[in-house]
Design goal:
Elements: H1 2-9, H2 44-47, H3 51-74, H4 79-98, E1 103-104, H5 105-112, H6 120-135, E2 137-141, E3 148-153, H7 157-160, H8 175-184, E4 189-190, H9 191-200, H10 215-225, E5 229-233, E6 242-246, H11 248-253, H12 256-266, H13 275-305
Antiparallel strand pairs: 1-3, 2-3, 4-6, 5-6
Helix pairs in contact: 1-4, 4-6, 8-12
């Protein structure tokens, strides 16, 4: 199970990016390297020893390699390896959520394996943080004993995600990350850039996802039909290419500042860490404020010009 799930979730378990990067950067290339034990040295004297001495020598070499590996594993675990374990655990929890089964701590420990038991709290936090940010779900105890959990829709999801979405939870959790990628790429992102980002999350074109189903259909049809995204041809592109921009509902129900705050949260930083986009988001906030003020002034003027007259009582004398 672990080998299979690691292949599915490895990309989604990438370590948190540094400040100022596109959200959720790809994992490092050398994450899969294993620690090497000390190799046995050959000696002419050892070759001349009796068979029993050779056997004892081989045992000593084996014990030396085992102790070397044990001492290596006892050191601080590389962050990339913990991120991969978090990806495996995340996939396991989503499977349980899909099947509406409780998530038991004993099963999570089996997924993580004994050698990472000490790092389990950190791995669990990485997995739950990613599930909360991308899918809008949070981990809750079924009973107040810490042994059984379930994933539920995050309280106040509207504050962190797009308001008014009719998409089923947790599908609507992917909206903010997608809007963030589009915003950070100059308010339009090519199809290739979108899929590059989705691959980091473990979402691949043509591969059914446990939450989103067929991802291409979900993004190019559902999100477009909901008017959160616009999928359009790039002018004069050869070969023919497409890009995504914000749809009218995205502009109406969220703002560039809210999306930038979401991106900053993913990067564990502040929106001002993205100076260019922060200035653009501030200008957008000013324009929205002016539009709201103009709208209120227009409504007030219209109400003054056409005051509401209560209907007359037909029984009253004229």
């Amino acid at each position: 199970m672990e080998t299979k799930d690691l292949g599915d979730a490895q990309a989604g378990a990438s370590p948190a990016p540094t400040s100022g990067s596109v959200p959720l950067g790809p994992p490092t290339a050398d994450a899969g390297q294993k620690p090497q034990g000390a190799e046995a040295t050959s000696s002419p004297v050892a070759g001349a020893s009796r068979p029993r001495s050779k056997a004892r020598g081989r045992r000593q070499v084996k014990e030396h390699k085992n102790s070397s590996q044990a001492s290596t594993s006892a050191k601080t675990t590389p962050p990339d390896l913990l991120a991969k374990k978090a990806g495996v655990l995340m996939h396991f929890m989503l499977e349980k959520f899909k099947m509406k089964e409780p998530i038991r701590k004993i099963d999570m420990l089996k997924i993580v394996r004994k050698m990472f038991k000490a790092q389990f709290p950190e791995i669990l936090k990485k997995a739950t943080d990613r599930i909360e940010l991308v899918f809008g779900l949070e981990l809750k105890e079924v009973k107040p004993n810490g042994y059984s959990y379930t994933l539920v829709s995050k309280e106040g999801l509207a504050k962190d995600g797009v308001l008014g979405s009719t998409l089923e939870v947790p599908k609507n959790g992917l909206l903010m990350p997608l809007l963030g990628v589009i915003f950070l790429n100059g308010n339009c992102a090519s199809e290739a850039e979108i899929w590059e980002f989705l691959n980091v999350l473990g979402i691949y074109d043509g591969k059914t996802h446990i939450i989103f189903g067929e991802p291409r259909k979900f993004i190019t049809e559902e999100l477009v039909q909901e008017k959160y995204l616009v999928y359009r041809q790039i002018p004069d592109s050869d070969p023919l290419s497409y890009e995504f921009v914000w749809g009218p509902r995205a502009h109406a129900e969220t703002s560039k500042m809210e999306v930038l705050e979401f991106v900053a949260k993913i990067n564990s930083t502040d929106p001002s860490a993205f100076p260019f986009h922060y200035e653009e988001a501030l200008r957008d906030e000013e324009e929205r404020a002016k539009a709201r003020s103009a709208g209120k002034a227009h409504a007030a003027a219209k109400a003054t010009a056409h005051p509401k007259v209560p209907p007359s009582d037909p029984s009253s004398p004229q």
